[in-house]
Design a protein that fits this description.
This protein is mainly alpha-helical. It has four helices and no strands.
Length: 102
């Protein structure tokens, strides 16, 4: 009973993250939340070992993505902004960023 309530809460949260515009996770995040909601609904309809494994894989994928975004993505994004010319940094080039490091 407790696991069914917990999985029901996961379904509601995953569908909210999937449909809400305030959650800006991008395409990968939306796909992972869609996978989580489908896996949770599969578990609610028939809690067999396959549905349980799918639910665990979906939760693990979201956890790995969260770890990646919080740990590594900010540093990679900053490096990309210094190396690649963009609208906000049109004159950024590798030569300029290397001279700053010296």
């Amino acid at each position: 009973m407790v696991s069914m309530v917990a999985v029901g809460i996961l379904v509601v949260h995953a569908v909210w993250c999937l449909l809400c515009k305030r959650v800006s996770d991008g395409i990968v995040g939306k796909l992972l939340y869609g996978l989580l909601s489908l896996a949770a609904l599969a578990y609610l309809s028939r809690p067999d070992p396959y549905a349980t494994a799918m639910l665990h894989v979906a939760l693990a994928a979201i956890a790995v993505r969260h770890f990646w975004m919080k740990t590594y993505w900010l540093r990679i994004k900053q490096r990309m902004l210094t190396w690649l010319p963009t609208r906000s940094h049109p004159h950024a080039s590798p030569a300029k960023s290397q001279s700053r490091r010296r």
